[in-house]
Design a protein that fits this description.
Blueprint (H helix, E strand, L loop, with lengths): L5 H5 L18 H10 L6 H11 L13 H11 L4 E9 L4 E8 L4 E9 L2 E5 L3 E3 L8 H5 L1 E4 L2 H16 L12 E4 L9 H12 L13 E5 L3 H8 L6 E5 L5 H7 L8 H15 L3 E7 L7 H11 L4 E7 L13 H12 L5 E3 L13 H6 L1
């Protein structure tokens, strides 16, 4: 068994949390064969089940016509239990942005968002129920950590999104998912083993997995340095995104409390190690917060830190939560911040924000349901 990531040891889910039932997506192909045999079925049924789940998105045993009727329910109970159900969908942008509120098997609530653009389809998924990082401007962080999601609970968000695209539930006709971002609820590297397992299921060729490209996956982290080093040794070609939010330790200690353990330069050095090993540019995520971290001098400082490095800065206009003192920057301050970074030759863009009409910020919809 893989050694737990340092992030998992430090930021584990509360003790006593119920363990999700075992699911096909939690297991490797070899483990699936063992589980099928333990259920009294022939091992080759594991590949048939994988084909139904990962390639056909067929969760109803009645659709498994290549499996004897007498075996279907037994296999469903053994390997395809119901992990999560849709509480509701909320849509905006003429239906091309759809946020889903999920209820997990134990009543826990999580969210995912599907965003369709003219040239791509992106899903933002959750890796934890809640978050233990305690960033004060984040709705999820203020709610605290309920528990880690299982590998299958992570994967199922994408499987359902791919089914919805195939079945035309999102306007624009059938489509295929092109990008996955681990930027929903939770700190992915604090749930290290399950997130890595999910990446493998997403990118294993069909029918062992979904057959997606690692290059279309982005994993976001606030900067759990030991876990970043470990992630760099996995051999992935995913993109790593570091949620920096401040170029100076004094402010980042407040905005991203984990910075009191691993400082800005340590986080950047770890991220650049991942970039070197993966061959992918490091993405620097920076939420612009009015009068807090959006001063032009901070943009200049960030540009100086990143000059000449294989990075891209992704500025995020803050999606404020109701009643919060934190809000988005003024347009003129946003522009001055962009110019200060670009003056150092560092690539910088402003993220296209979606979903404000549907509680778009991570954790808002789950919080309102509670």
């Amino acid at each position: 068994m893989a050694r737990p990531a340092p992030g998992e040891l430090t930021f584990a889910a509360p003790r006593g949390a119920k363990k999700p039932p075992r699911h096909l997506a939690d297991l490797s192909p070899a483990e699936r064969k063992e589980a099928v045999a333990a259920a009294g079925e022939k091992p080759f049924r594991a590949r048939q089940l994988s084909q139904h789940y990962f390639a056909r998105y067929a969760h109803d045993p009645e659709q498994w016509t290549d499996i004897p009727a007498g075996s279907r329910e037994r296999l469903r109970e053994a390997l395809l239990p119901e992990l999560m159900t849709v509480v509701r969908h909320l849509s905006t942008d003429a239906g091309t942005t759809r946020k889903t509120l999920w209820k997990l098997f134990d009543g826990t609530l999580v969210e995912s968002v599907l965003m369709r653009y003219p040239d791509r389809v992106t899903m933002c998924i959750s890796s934890q129920a809640g978050c233990g990082m305690n960033c004060p401007f984040c709705a999820t962080g203020q709610a605290g950590l309920d528990r880690n999601l299982s590998t299958a609970e992570i994967v199922h968000q994408i499987v359902d999104g791919m089914r919805a695209l195939r079945d035309g539930e999102v306007p624009g006709g059938p489509a295929r998912l092109s990008n996955i971002v681990f930027m929903g609820m939770g700190e992915p590297l604090a749930n290290y083993n399950r997130v890595v397992g999910a990446i493998r299921r997403l990118t294993d060729p069909e029918p062992d997995g979904l057959g997606l490209s690692q290059r279309g996956i982005t994993v976001s982290t606030v900067g759990l340095v030991p876990a970043i080093h470990r992630f760099a040794d996995e051999g992935f070609k995913c993109r790593l995104a570091v949620s920096l939010h401040a170029p100076d330790d004094e402010l980042r200690d407040t905005l991203v409390p984990v910075n009191t353990r691993w400082k800005v330069r340590e986080v950047l050095d770890a991220g650049l190690e991942y970039a070197a090993k993966s061959g992918r540019r490091l993405s620097i995520e920076y939420a612009l917060i009015r009068d807090i971290n959006d001063q032009a001098w901070r943009g200049d400082r960030l540009g100086r830190l990143l000059k000449g490095k294989p990075v891209h800065v992704n500025l995020i206009p803050l999606n404020p939560t109701p009643g919060s003192k934190w809000t988005a920057s003024r347009p003129e301050d946003e522009q001055a911040f962009v110019e200060a970074i670009a003056a150092h030759g560092v690539p910088v863009t402003i993220r296209d924000t979606r979903g404000q009409e549907i509680d778009g910020a991570c954790g808002q919809l789950a919080a309102s349901e509670r």
